[in-house]
Specification:
Blueprint: H1 3-33, H2 40-59, H3 61-70, H4 80-97, H5 100-123, H6 126-147, H7 153-161, H8 167-190, H9 206-220, E1 227-231, E2 237-241, E3 244-249, H10 256-275, H11 291-305, H12 309-322, H13 324-327, H14 332-339, H15 353-372, H16 380-392, H17 418-437, H18 441-446, H19 451-462, H20 470-478, H21 485-499
Parallel strand pairs: 1-3
Antiparallel strand pairs: 2-3
Helix pairs in contact: 1-2, 1-3, 1-4, 3-4, 5-6, 6-7, 8-15, 8-21, 9-10, 9-12, 10-11, 10-19, 11-17, 15-16, 15-17
The structure holds zinc ion (ZN).
Zinc ion (ZN) is lined by residues 265, 269, 295, 298.
């Protein structure tokens, strides 16, 4: 086989596996939106078959042969071909290092653990979940050992979500971030100013919310000719393939924030998916860079833009038209303060921009300790509550509102949490860069114009696909790698103004 033939074959296989896996994505979307209740067992069979076939295709020895033929030196460094080969090799190497028996065991245990977790959470029964958490930690530790790592087993798991990032790197950035956030949040807590939260808990008819959120998603650049918005209990974005990106939300008729900011968040993910170069679909060049970068796109639109003052200068008059009985008597400043309320709270998914990252840092520290063996699963509730008190000045009244609140551990997703805060950090860095490279962006927003920012993100963040690591992408765009200072400065300015600090 010539190296040209090997490359052609490698790409053909990569695209075919992606097409197959996208069929699973359509079924997964359907499962969470419109599938009838009784179909769940059969859907499980369909999904398992597709997952197995995709896995077989990506780990086929033929892929290994192509990679061996291509070697390291046959392609010009950093050429598109070299990037594709490098990334396919990386995924292949990881996949073949994992014994089939371990992969199947993780799939089996995490399916069951999710069911147990759901019940344990609703009954506030940590002891019921504990043996499953033990199994998960042991299996993920075995996974880390099989994949291999230099310093900490966590590196092997984090690398799957945030290629190239290490626990040590994240630990340094998170420690600096936490040192700045804890006093900022304490100062907010002591401020005499309080927003009128009640404004957001008035009557917000679902149809009006739907139309309003859809209009905002369209305005920021989500293409409804190439996407849909539907309803689910747990909102998500699924980039199925070129021309097809599905986002979902849930509507609460008595709370404005939930659906609206949820839609902006998922639309941000969707704009990224829609902005990936479709000609490279199914290859690394057409894939997202990392989960941290993915999350930076959702947080940028949701928070940096969507919770900003200028955004609402444009949208608030429209909001008053859409919800006349709820907002007719509310001045813009009161609304703006209400949607930006900050206060320590127990639940991560309900947290504001300032406190959110502390929730992540807490989970990151616990995961490190679980994997290294310093923390036993049995001691998780006590350790959680102790840390929570230290960071937030609150103690969860029960485990349901403490260590049992998130699905991630039951899914085997150790190593996933940091990507949320990496997203917030990158979002702040990217927003700064866009503002310095594009003059007058805030004026655009006040006029309901988001095209210049969206095009800039398309060019700088979306088009490169997975051609480099997240830290390097940030470096290329902003001139600096991952840093905590831009996010801290942004939060200080914003909440300093709101709470008169
Ligand atoms: Zn997200």
């Amino acid at each position: 086989m010539t190296s040209e033939a090997a490359y052609t074959e490698l790409i053909r296989r990569s695209k075919e596996a992606a097409v197959l896996s996208s069929c699973g994505a359509v079924l997964g979307w359907d499962e969470r939106t419109y599938m009838p209740h009784n179909a769940s067992e059969f859907r499980g069979e369909q999904m398992a078959l597709l997952a197995r076939m995709t896995h077989e295709m990506t780990t086929d020895p033929k892929v290994g042969e192509c990679l061996a033929t291509l070697g390291d030196s046959s392609l010009a460094k950093d050429s598109p071909e070299a990037i594709n080969v490098r990334e396919i090799r990386r995924a292949y190497d990881r996949a073949v290092k994992l014994p089939k028996e371990l992969v199947e065991e993780i799939a089996r245990v995490s399916t069951r653990a999710q069911q147990v977790w759901q019940e344990a959470r609703s009954k506030n029964d940590f002891p019921a979940f504990q043996p499953w958490l033990e199994k998960i930690v042991t299996l993920k530790r075995r996974e880390a050992d099989a994949v291999g790592f230099k310093e900490h087993p966590y590196d092997a798991l984090l690398d799957e979500y945030e290629p190239g990032a290490t626990a040590a790197q994240v630990r340094v950035v998170f420690a600096s971030l936490s040192a700045e956030l804890v006093p900022l949040i304490a100062a907010i807590g002591q401020s005499k100013r309080r927003p009128k939260r009640e404004i957001l808990e008035r009557e917000y008819p679902v149809e009006a919310q739907q139309a309003f959120a859809k209009a905002a998603a369209t305005a920021i650049g989500f293409d409804f000719q190439a996407g849909r918005l539907d309803v689910t209990t747990h909102p998500f974005c699924s980039g199925i393939g070129p021309g097809d990106c599905r986002i979902t939300t849930r509507y609460n008729p008595r709370f404005f924030n939930e659906a609206f900011f949820g839609v902006l968040h998922e639309a941000g993910h969707g704009i990224y998916e829609q902005g990936l170069p479709s000609e490279h679909f199914g290859t690394p060049l057409g894939s997202y860079c990392s989960l941290g970068i993915h999350e930076s796109q959702s947080r940028l639109w949701e928070n940096q833009v969507g919770r900003g003052r200028t955004f609402w200068e444009h949208f608030y008059p429209k909001a008053r038209q859409a919800f006349p009985s709820a907002l007719g008597d509310v001045p813009l400043d009161d609304f703006y303060f209400a949607i930006n309320e900050a206060r320590p709270s127990l639940i991560r998914v309900e947290a504001d921009e300032a406190t959110y990252n502390l929730h992540i840092i807490l989970r990151f520290e616990m995961e490190l300790a679980l994997l290294s063996g310093d923390l036993k699963p049995a001691d998780v509730p006590g350790a959680w509550n102790e840390r929570f008190q230290k960071m937030f000045g609150l103690t969860p009244p029960d485990d349901r509102q403490g260590c049992l609140q998130d699905i991630h551990w039951s899914m085997g997703g150790l190593g996933y949490f940091p990507t949320y805060t990496l997203g917030n950090l990158y979002a702040a860095q990217l927003m700064n860069a866009s503002k310095s490279q594009l003059q007058g962006l805030e004026t655009d927003f006040a006029q309901g114009e988001f095209g210049r920012l969206k095009n800039w993100l398309n060019e700088k963040v979306h088009k490169p696909g997975r051609s480099c690591r997240s830290d390097e992408l940030c470096q290329r765009i902003t001139g600096e790698g991952l840093r905590h200072e831009p996010l801290v400065a942004y939060l200080r300015t914003k909440f300093g103004d709101l709470y008169d600090l």
